[in-house]
Design goal:
The complex is a heterodimer of chains A (about 110) and B (about 120). Chain A has about 110 residues and is mostly beta strands. Chain A is built from no helices and 11 strands. Chain A is about 0% helix and about 50% strand. In chain A, strand 7 and strand 8 form a beta hairpin. Chain B has about 120 residues and is mainly β. In chain B, about 0% of the residues lie in helices and about 55% in strands. In chain B, strands 2, 4, 5, 9, 10 and 11 form a 6-stranded mixed sheet that branches. A 5-stranded antiparallel sheet of chain B has the order 1-3-8-7-6, with no helix packed on it. In chain B, strand 9 and strand 10 form a beta hairpin. The chains are: A mainly beta (about 110), B mainly beta (about 120).
Chain lengths: ~110, ~120
Amino acid sequence: DAGVTQSPTHLIKTRGQQVTLRCSPKSGHDTVSWYQQALGQGPQFIFQYYEEEERQRGNFPDRFSGHQFPNYSSELNVNALLLGDSALYLCASSAMGGGLNEQFFGPGTRLTVL
Amino acid sequence: AQSVTQLGSHVSVSEGALVLLRCNYSSSVPPYLFWYVQYPNQGLQLLLKYTTGATLVKGINGFEAEFKKSETSFHLTKPSAHMSDAAEYFCAVIHGSGNTGKLIFGQGTTLQVKP
């Protein structure tokens, strides 16, 4: 079992560009959550996908959007990048719609916006 | 709304000494509480969780935490620190009723273990 995988591991973009991050959940998991972790901070919830729909959203602007595919993998898209979007983006997967089931985290994608 | 406060952004202990990482929560409903560890350049790994039942929760790598409702605390302890325990530790609470699994994290505590 490969666990939760994310790609790419590192990414450098410039202000105003768009970026897509990808996540493959742990085998058997159907729920994917995305978190943003700024340097020196705890992760902040962006949104969660279940059954290909956004089920819950954190306090992030509409520039942040996502998608879940039938195979449960997920993408995070960020448009019109700002310097403040520089962070580690973490994907977490869980089973049976999430809830109190353990969330397994991937290694993250480090996004740098110049 | 739920929130988590971790007291002390950096904690330094000697190898073999007691580890104590402090976490206080705020919640209008019975909380579900978690401790995660993050090693450099890695994702988060669950150490332990409290949902209901026994207030003393044992986790992996010799860590344990005690839920104290009267003190709104969920401090993480380990009797004897090992060099491999050096990492970032996050306390978290589940938002709302727990049905959606949205985690609210504290700011984190960096644990340094000195030889």
